[in-house]
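Z., the sequence and structure:
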Amino acid sequence: MTDGSDTNRPVAIVTGASSGIGLSAAKALAEHGFTVVCVSRGNGAGAQVVERLRAETGSSGLHYLPADLSRPREAVALASAFRERFGRLDVLVNNAGAFVPGRVVTDDGLELTFALNHVSTFALTLALLPELRAAGGRVVTVSSNAAMGARLQLDDPTSERRYSGWSAYAWSKLCNQLFTAELARRLEGSGVTANAVHPGFVATSFGHVGGPMGGLVRLAQRLFGRTPERGADTVVWLASAPEMRGRSGGYYVDRRERPFAPRARDEEAQRRLWSLSEALLERAGVPIQWPADADQSGLRSPSHRAAAVP
């Protein structure tokens, strides 16, 4: 370990930590005594945010690692950079996400919303499983009630046939829930937990796009949006509360467990999304799969074959 952190502190990663819910979650976890690694794109803002948080909290345990999580290979590189510097991981908060009004295709051939909101979440979590297993850690993934009305797009995961910004966002949030449910099942008996959270309608820069829709979003946030601190509250509670130790496979709203979206409860869909995600990563040159030693390490092995990419 080369960063000088107190080795007795629990360590958390928060993605999308330069603003909004991620920023508030990082600050609160630092105030709870965590070493917090803040992840955001390498445009300079992330390092400045960490300096500000250090001044506000008085904590020296705040650090910054850059990564563009719309690219799965950067998620894997992030895991390697973290491993070299910190050596343990107690909490992973998968918060990075975006709403993209027009369809954008990444260099990996993935639709941007799906790539950032789901595929890199999947890749980063699997890449960090050794550290999470060693610590008996917690995975907290920020989903949304937008998933409640989402279509199941396993045959068109990157929205090639038809696209709307809202549908793509809702589908990605459904993926967060499908992934959390399958991950929790595979982690049974390992000591690692996985839960998802709806932060509520939060007044942040998220969803600020041009045109009438962007104006409506900003107006609604001013009138009805909750603060980023309140939006982050359940995230921080899932990450740190003693009473949540060992509780896994849930979806939480305002610290209360709620049912997953109806389509997220389909176990076959959970398994299919997992296999599809592995196949998409392999196609992108980032082959991350469930650990080969799953049976020996207390993890449940998959009982299905890899899916073909549509």
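The chain has a mean pLDDT of 89. Strands lie at 11-15, 35-40, 62-66, 91-94, 138-142, 193-198, 251-253, 256-258.

Let me know what you think.
H.
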